Amino acid sequence: MEAVLFDLDNTLVNRKLAFEQFSRRFIDRFAAAQNPEDRRKLVGQLRVADRNGYREKRELYEEMRRTLPMREEATTAEDLLAYWFAEFPSCTVAMDGAERVLQELKSRGIRIGLVTNGSARTQYAKLDQVQFRDYFDAVIVSEEAGVKKPDRRIYAMALSRLQARPENCWFVGDHPEKDAQGAAAAGLRPVLLLTTPTDADPLLPEGTLTINKLQELLPLCTGPFCGLEGR
Description:
Layout: E1 3-6, H1 15-30, H2 36-50, H3 57-67, H4 77-87, H5 98-107, E2 111-116, H6 120-129, E3 138-141, H7 142-145, H8 152-162, E4 169-173, H9 176-185, E5 189-193, E6 209-211, H10 217-220
Parallel strand pairs: 1-2, 1-4, 2-3, 4-5, 5-6
Helix pairs in contact: 1-2, 3-4
């Protein structure tokens, strides 16, 4: 094994938990909600509209400006978007076991890469919030790369920076299409982190490994799946 590459959101950082925290701040700051039940419903509305992060942010906050009962009529979609960029990264929390996994891979001399869709400003801020940036030998953010997962070119960029061959690398992520299928198409072995019991997909590429917790990656890295028995 030459390298392990990771997705960021809901893989190394718990985006679902971070967005819940951000949503409560957002509703308290902008929404004219009079009681806890109203705020709870609005937080749920924002969570559904966000589509677990797979929503263009300007579109999302233009919708929120139209549909939420806003505290101040003069609030614009630009105000809401600015609040997102200023506040969301500070809500970032590491996924359970993430730092231990990164530390252990580093100690074994395995190169570590990150391939993530999103804006450079937000994704780097998340890395800095959890102090993970220094673990990586290569970081590829789609905004900077000009292509997004599952486009195989974004994986190729990371492999080039890592000076690693795809057949000797794994990619760990939580999305069956953007992570598992994309990585397999680029020649890497996919490892799918199952964040809910329903995440297993019968159309996963052949050879995909599945884990329920990041810590389960470490014994796989010394087992028969990667040819490092006894290392």
